[in-house]
Amino acid sequence: MSRTTVVGACPHDCPDTCSILTTLEDGKAIAVRGNPDHPFTRGRLCVKVNNYQDRVYSDQRILYPMRRSGPKGSGQFTRITWDEALAEIAATFKEIIARDGAQAILPYSYLGTQGIINGLNVGDPLFNKLGAAVSERTFCDSGSCTAYMMTIGHTPGVDPEAFVHSKYIILWACNTLSTNSHHWPFIEQAKKNGAKLVVIDPVRTRTARLADWHIPIRPGTDGALAMAMMHIIIKEGLTDRDYIDAHTVGFAELAERVEDYTPEFASAETGIPVEDIYQLAREYAATPPAVVRIGVAVERHAGGGQTVRAIACLPALIGAWKHVGGGLLQLPIWAFPVNWGGLMRPDLQPETMRVINSWQLGPALTGELALDPPIRSLFVYNANPMAMVSQQGKLEAGLAREDLFTVVSEHFMTDTARYADILLPATTQLEQKDIMFSWGHLYLSYNNPAIEPLGEAVPNTELFRRLARALGIDDPFFHRSDDEMIAQSMDWGSPVMEGIDLETLKEKGYLRLNMPATGEWAPHRDGNFPTPTGKCEFKSTLAATGNFVVPLFRQGYNGGQSGEPVDPLPHYIAPNESPASAPDLAGKYPLSLISPKSHAFLNSNYGNLPAQLAQAGEEQAVILHPSDADVRGIVAGTPIRIFNDRGVFEAFATVSQDVMPGVVVAPAGYWQRSNRRGPTVHALTPPAFADLGRAPTFSDVLVEVAPS
Amino acid sequence: MTYVVTDQCTGCRYTECVTVCPVECFHLDDEMTYIDPENCIDCGGCVPACPVGAIQPAYLLPPEQQKWIEINRRRAAETPVITSRLAPLPGADQRKMALGR
């Protein structure tokens, strides 16, 4: 018996990008564990990945190409060869291109695997070269990114490890212990050093339970709180005038703007007592170093972008950036000098391309969007839209179209894969190699493959090499090996890559970017914001160009941006759907629905696997406040219906004081198999975009609940 | 569902587990440690840390060990949190050797 260990990195769309040690016995992976030497992983993984080998060897894996042999959506397939699959895809693509043009083909993907060569952009060069429709992927943080760019630029922000130096920590819409758990020890250390931890969340989450102060807030009203905090800070002279004078623009206009956003106004919107708003603003301003960590959820409502604009103004207002461990943390991904252009190849695009937003997949397929030509083929990889995309009913109808040619590359027979015409087997992280950025720490990682691919599964890189060959594309760029792709994936000459070489990276599995040491680094102590003015822009220069999605999320394409006018000063936009903003709708549907990440799933990943279902519960549970349950005659543990004009789904009731009255919580990621009548929570979520970056509005939904 | 300490801990109580737990969810009495299921985040970090293999995910417990889920829940509520490692109980090393660990 031979036992070896391989160092790799977690593939998931999570900020932590853990270093993983895989134990092999006679060539088979028998266990994975967190790398104890990695400063962020610290020997731990999580409920999703602890038994990753069971995902790899699951008897549910798709291991061979298959062709549909039953009605659409039936899940009936017959095994075919790779050559047959590729020939059919290539022939169909060519036929579509000849008849309707390449823009009748729509790629659809996100971060089912997050590796730099197999992840977000792996298919972009091919679809750009074909001139297919651009898939505008605004799944996550797109509104925040646009708001960030408009305010402080694409800065990595505070070093996550520097939280140990913070004295006042606000986790805003972030359930760290479920979705960013390896950051927790740094927060815990800060608490031991005397820091106060504040959690702002409609739900008393695991994280909120361990906070010094949990502030429940009505969904979608965070912007009112941030504006009122600025109102108090400016009115009471809690600002850092030197910092403002030297490193910001638009202070006078901002001061005027926040006049109207009184704590009383914010209290009425948010449900937070006036005195708590005063206390929060005063403590935040008076307890340096103060830091805010925002979660993805903060953008998921009508005013999500302006909410992030307002929050991003706060640290400059009080000079928080002057201190190590002070400022704002959103996406340290911007620290990584990834060769995005070389990954996406926007230079291959035709001059004009058709852009179709990820949240509009249903209406795009059904014809509701009135596309000319209509979408004839959908190519899905790294994604399970049937589980994660709004307007689920429309999506299901669109996928059922007999004349739609759907290709899905997957590990499992997901709710989306069931609708494929051609199903292709994809490798898991143990079977592929990759280089990984992180959006939660500053370590570049390398994933060494631990085992050979199972069956005929291939990495996404190989999938697109094969597809290029089948389509007769000779350009050697499309036939680079994984090693060549990795070598070209980064700007190795960047100063932050100094001291990082590929051989050491492969051997060790991770290396910290060459940033200043955590204990010394205050990234904006002297301003240096990556904005047009180099300053924190309370009044945004980029707002003049109107609303946009960062090209990284649209295959590098910058044409056809939505461009709605944007007010250059932060402001509050009330939810589309709340009892206060839509009283008529609330007459029918009085409860606000939110759908946070499930503790045991990574989006819809693991929604089919026994260990995670054992943790999460085999069937979807929905949490209500006792007062909302009682008035409807709902008993804990019994089946309920959750519905609005868009649809209905069924679940089991959990009754708990952990949610605010008037709020209903449906953790997302469950597959239809876990919902008693099929549809899941996204049957109810709305089509509306948030104000910036075309973020979704999943936390901006009114529903009613009744016993089943 | 969560992780649980089983009777394998009894008589050893190495408390290595508390050094890796990020959320201080270990409690203890004179016999052994217990995991607070309300605070455990299911990270699994304690499993390889235990010298005698006493910690397991609840869903993998054999039927005769299922009782430990409730015992952990109850005893965690009744006993104090332990935040740093203690000396093992007398005889722990001999017991560990006897277990072939």
TrEMBL record, chain A:
Please identify the protein, giving its name as recorded: Molybdopterin oxidoreductase
* Family matches, as SUPFAM superfamilies: ADC-like (SSF50692), Formate dehydrogenase/DMSO reductase, domains 1-3 (SSF53706)
The similarity annotation says: Belongs to the prokaryotic molybdopterin-containing oxidoreductase family.
Concerning Gene3D superfamilies, the annotation shows: 2.40.40.20, 3.40.50.740, ADC-like domains, Dimethylsulfoxide Reductase, domain 2, Formate dehydrogenase/DMSO reductase
A Pfam family matched in the record: Molydop_binding
- Going by the entry's taxonomy, the superkingdom of the source organism is recorded as Bacteria
Q: Give the cofactors, semicolon-separated.
A: Mo-bis(molybdopterin guanine dinucleotide)
> Could you state a single Gene Ontology molecular function term?
metal ion binding
Its source organism is: Xaviernesmea rhizosphaerae
Instruction: Check the record and name the InterPro entries matching this protein.
Output: Asp_de-COase-like_dom_sf, MoPterin_dinucl-bd_dom, Mopterin_OxRdtase, Mopterin_OxRdtase_4Fe-4S_dom, Mopterin_OxRdtase_prok_CS, Prok_Mopterin_Oxidored
Please report the stretch or stretches of sequence annotated as the 4Fe-4S Mo/W bis-MGD-type domain. 3-60
Taxon lineage: Bacteria, Pseudomonadati, Pseudomonadota, Alphaproteobacteria, Hyphomicrobiales
PANTHER family according to UniProt: OXIDOREDUCTASE YYAE-RELATED, TRIMETHYLAMINE-N-OXIDE REDUCTASE
User: Which keywords has UniProt assigned to this entry?
Assistant: Iron, Iron-sulfur, Metal-binding, Molybdenum, Oxidoreductase
Automatic annotation (TrEMBL), chain B:
Residue ranges constituting the 4Fe-4S ferredoxin-type domain according to the UniProt record: 1-30, 31-60
What keywords are annotated for this sequence in UniProt?
3Fe-4S, 4Fe-4S, Electron transport, Iron, Iron-sulfur, Metal-binding, Repeat, Transport
Give an example GO molecular function.
3 iron, 4 sulfur cluster binding
> By its UniProt entry, which InterPro entries does this protein fall under?
4Fe4S_Fe-S-bd, 4Fe4S_Fe_S_CS, 7Fe_ferredoxin, Fd_C, RnfB_subfamily
Q: Needs which cofactor?
A: [3Fe-4S] cluster; [4Fe-4S] cluster
Described by its record, this protein's role is as follows: Ferredoxins are iron-sulfur proteins that transfer electrons in a wide variety of metabolic reactions.
Write the protein's name.
Ferredoxin
Origin organism is Xaviernesmea rhizosphaerae
What taxonomic lineage is listed for the species of origin? Bacteria, Pseudomonadati, Pseudomonadota, Alphaproteobacteria, Hyphomicrobiales
